[in-house]
Amino acid sequence: MSLKPKKKLGQNFLIDKNIIKKIVEITPISQENEILEIGPGTGNLTEYLVKKKPKNIILIEKDKNLIDLLRNKFDDKAEILNEDILFFSKSNLLTDNTIIFGNLPYNISSKILTKFIFNNEKLKFKMLIFLFQKELADRIVANVDSSSYGRLSILTKWKFDVKRVFEIGPNSFFPKPKIKSTLLIFTPKTNVVKFKNPSSLEKITRVFFNQRRKKIKKQFAIFFNNNSKLIQKLNIDLDMRPQNLSPETYFSLALELEKLRN
């Protein structure tokens, strides 16, 4: 490996060619598709994406030391941007046919996902194919009543249908992480609950899960002053705990919060 991965950037380069091939084959890629790859690193996945001959490929790499390497390998095959995906400035490059791949840096992977959750009207795409550390992936796909279920599960299910594809062991990366990784596919939902301000859902879930082991009576009172009609309308038991409420219940609570604000 000619360039040493940077721990501060959460870099673990994917080096297993068999795994890379499986990732690229997950979804058909045609000349109608644009590809956006987040954090291509040394371009191991990029090499296989290029072979699929999509309409165009955009690479977003924050590490300046990797840019020259990527340009030497792909300058005539991809648009290479030395940017931080959290501050991506060229959303006009993305379309409904864009497939976004990312072996996401462990230290900011939840922030990257949240960016796509709250900005997917501006950031158009067909699907996201992302690698996360397994523990975070478990939280993302978790269902109600499970120990991993929480804010990220609910926010994700608001905007996406999510599918767990497969797990990847530490030996497939350089350097080897201490934990397994999981590949997830996110497909934008067509029928999304519309909020006047998405911060309503963010606030409701943050307050409720701030004390996830306690009953929701106190949290409910903070927002709704134990409104008995609302309790009946939403069929809520105040003896429940935050992980017992479905995503749809949290969506309804956020909508009711917006009514109060108006």
How would you explain this protein's 3D organization?
- With 262 residues, this protein is of the alpha/beta class.
- It has two domains: 180 residues, Rossmann fold (3-Layer(aba) Sandwich); 63 residues, Helicase, Ruva Protein, domain 3 (Orthogonal Bundle), CATH 1.10.8.100.
- The protein is 36% helix and 18% strand.
- Helix 3 links the parallel strand 3 and strand 4.
- The longest helix is centred in the C-terminal third of the chain and has 15 residues.
- The chain is elongated, with a radius of gyration of 20 Å.
- The termini are far apart.
Topology:
Blueprint: E1 13-14, H1 17-24, E2 34-38, H2 44-51, E3 56-60, H3 64-74, E4 79-81, E5 98-103, H4 109-119, E6 127-133, H5 134-141, H6 151-159, E7 160-168, E8 173-174, E9 181-188, H7 199-209, H8 217-224, H9 228-233, H10 247-261
Parallel strand pairs: 2-3, 2-5, 3-4, 5-6
Antiparallel strand pairs: 1-8, 6-9, 7-9
Helix pairs in contact: 1-2, 4-6, 6-10, 7-10
Considering the chains and any ligands shown, give keywords for the structure:
elongated, 9 strands, 18% strand, 36% helix, 10 helices, 262 residues, alpha/beta, Helicase, Ruva Protein, domain 3, Rossmann fold, seven-stranded mixed β-sheet, two-stranded antiparallel ribbon, 2 domains
